[in-house]
Amino acid sequence: MANDFCVSLINNNSVVSSISCDKCIKIVDFISNFPNSEQIVAVKINNIINSLDSYLDYNATVEPIYLNSKEGSEIYRRTLCFVLAAAAKKLFPSKRLIVGHSICHSYYYTIFGQNEILQEEIILLKNEILRIIEQKLPIESKTIPYSDAINLFSNQNMNDSVAKLNYICSPFVKINSIENFSDLFFHPLLINSSQLHTFDLIKYENGMLLRFPKTSTPFVLQNFIDEPKLFKTYKHYNDWGERLNVTSVSDLNRLIINRKINDFIDISETHQQKCIADIAEQIIKSKKIRVVLIAGPSSSGKTTTSKKLALELMANGYKSKVISLDCYYAGRDKTPIDENGEPDFECLEALNIDLLNQNLIDLFAGKEVIIPSYDFKVGMPFFDEKNKMILEENEFLILEGIHGLNDKLTPKIPNELKFKLYISALTQLNLDDSNRISTKDNRLIRRIVRDAGFRGKSASGTISMWPSVLRGEELHIYPFHNNADAILNTALDYELSVLRVYAEPILSCVPPSQKEYSEAQRLLKFLQNFSTIPPTEIPERSILREFIGGSSFKY
To answer: What percentage of the chain has pLDDT greater than the value 90?
Structure first.
């Protein structure tokens, strides 16, 4: 019998009610006390995400996670992937269905060793998912001994899960199960298949897309908008990973344990540098381009990419100068206000567009200009004679900032003079066949490490402002990436094994009393999948050095 304890139900930072208990209780039994309880997909117990079938026998605060929240949307998508994996294992037990990258509110899937997923296979999979949903099957989480887990996944021909357990050995293993299918537990899922209501499976290229709703509209599938340039970039890196036999965390851990990681680091860095060299060659061949506009989401490595591209251009006999769009902030008093009453420094209107365009026109005409500087402390631009610039005939201007791909940034500059480069950390590694690594998680961990090391910001501070960063990217970057002339993947497949060394102590400092604790703990558990790599093995000009320090570049 448990001792008496109290459960406080909190919603929107307000106490809904308090429950006094004298025995263990199940979350799902009192979830109806919250408003709109039918939309609750999980809860936070003392700031840790738990599924609705969790039990409580201690003092706790319980906060609902709704379907139309970031966490709720992620739980829905993970459960959908889990059910698809169960359907595939039942229909095609000898095949490996592998999750890939995201594209327009969808995940791209392929079958390992099969050139194409056939339309009839997609129909069978969709019908099996519908059967699972209609039968309202329970999704259960449980912990089993290590040896039982090895036997379970071996019998299901899930060799990638077995390989993962070979490198991260624990006496007990947590799994998710539905009917006769089980998979490794990474995060909480929905507790019943009937909660999956909106999805689709459609043919795409040689694979298929698992479509899911947008977070803000959880019962509606958005119209599919193709992203062919992004898909081509992903495919290039996926094919590269397959050729090297490094497509999952277990593959990476194998190289680390067998002391073969140094070669892979060199190969990864060389491959990325070759991609930058190819872009430089593309710029030079045009004969008309004067400005390279580089844009990408936060922590993509825009600064280092600019410097590396400048070196590649120089290696071909062309000089370049680099400018950040931050120099062209109009001033705090001229910055639009967002919906929260705060200055919106990420919107296009926060920049002095007229001055930027006039500077570019003058530079291309061979005139000397003074590039503005911006004082972030006082919130005002200023002009310093030391920042005079002139662009010679054989020089390129490299301009980096979040609005680079938006034509409204440079409306007075002819298109033939512009080269638009989109960059992002598009990791091709998976945790295993059914669980992908989010590119946003990769970038968030990069930023946490950099902010703590060079900006004096705690992990909780970075995590708290991350949703705002993502909203800005949705508004100002992603709508324009199809405008890019080239896309560069700045992810290095080994980097999370290095970032773990820095991120773990930073994330461990987030106390349970802070709301960011939940995300910090999720990231910590995620990083535990990676064996570590000593930072001393990382080249001084690696993009990773922008975040961990020790770069030979000056920032």
So the answer is: 87
Kindly state the tokens that stand for 484.
Answer: 């890019």
pLDDT of residue 1: 44
Token pair recorded at residue 244: 């090297």
| Nearest residue to 519 (alpha-carbon basis) of 173, 70, 212 | 70
CA distance 40 to 27: 11
Question: Which of the 8 DSSP states describes residue 539?
Answer: -
CA–CA separation, 247 and 182 (whole Å): 22
Q: For strand 200-204 and strand 207-211, is the pairing parallel, antiparallel, or unpaired?
A: antiparallel
**Using CA atoms, how far apart are residues 441 and 424, in angstroms rounded to an integer?**
12
Q: Give 58's strand partners.
A: none
Q: Check pLDDT > 80 for residue 2.
A: no
- Which amino acid is present at 1? M
Please give the single-letter amino acid code of residue 207: G
Instruction: State pLDDT tens for residues 219-228.
Output: 999 999 999 9
**Rounded-to-10 torsion of CA 377, 383, 388, 389:** 70
Closest CA to 515 of 468, 466, 460, 469: 460
552 and 541 Cβ atoms separated by less than 8 Å: yes
Could you tell me the CA-to-CA distances from 170 to 160, 164, 165, 508, 529 in Å, in that order? 17, 11, 8, 21, 12
Question: What mean pLDDT is predicted for residues 347-362?
Answer: 96
Phi, psi of 360 (to 5 degrees): -65, -45
- List the one residue out of 58, 66, 349, 104 whose CA is nearest residue 224: 104
Residue of 29 and 370 predicted with greater confidence = 370
pLDDT mean over 294-306: 95
Q: To 5 degrees, how large is the angle CA 430–CA 488–CA 296?
A: 95
Contact 428, 99 (CB under 8 A): no
Q: Please indicate, yes or no, whether the overall pTM of this predicted structure exceeds 0.90.
A: yes
Interatomic CA distance for residues 520 and 430, integer angstroms: 20
